Amino acid sequence: MLLREFTKDDWIDVHKYASQDIVCQYQPWGPNTKDDSLGFVKQVINDANQEPRTRFVFAIVYNENMIGAGEFNIRDFTNKIGEVAYILNPKYWGKGIATDVAKLLIDFGFKELKLHRIYATCDPRNIGSSKVLEKVGMVKEGRIRENLFVKGGWRDSLLFSVLEHEWEK
Fold it and tell me: Fewer beta carbons under 10 A from the terminal one: N or C of the chain?
């Protein structure tokens, strides 16, 4: 498994998972149309060329197949805070890939970007994602009430984080 920058042709593989109801059931977007998937990849490539760069979206490649995306966003340069997120084609769920991706993203945030705090959020109903975040050593800080308007209704989010000195252990 490896992470790499997106290329324009990745929209095809993005569309394979982002067009599925089960993949985006907890997301504010989707299911994607072909234009949505194309637009996402174009935006990711555009964001990679911004200075300073605040958004890093990597294609997840497993056995030579592009199967998802791992994202790192710098949310606050002054206070050295970043956020991680990931999404996978459901064919690859339950294989530990999301856990490996989350670890790589957190490592990237601390080692390459020199951040102090990294957090992630997820829908409270997304048990799989909660387990991944706990497995990588993030601490569940609590529940953010009705912080996202998703598909016609307000949604809570669980908040997880890890600090630089905790990760070094």
Answer: C
* 116 phi and psi angles, rounded to 5 deg: -105, -35
Residue 6 CB contacts under 8 Å (≥ 6 apart), including other chains? 41, 44, 45, 48, 57, 58, 59, 69
Residue 159: strand, helix, or coil: strand
CA pair distance 51, 96, nearest whole angstrom: 33
How many Å apart are CA 88 and CA 163, to the nearest integer?
Answer: 25
Q: Is 28 exposed, middle or buried (0-12, 13-18, 19+ CB in 10 A)?
A: exposed
SS3 content of the chain, % helix, strand, coil (to 5): 35, 35, 25
What whole-number distance in Å separates Cα of residue 121 and Cα of residue 71?
13
- Mapped onto helix, strand or coil, the DSSP state of residue 129 is helix
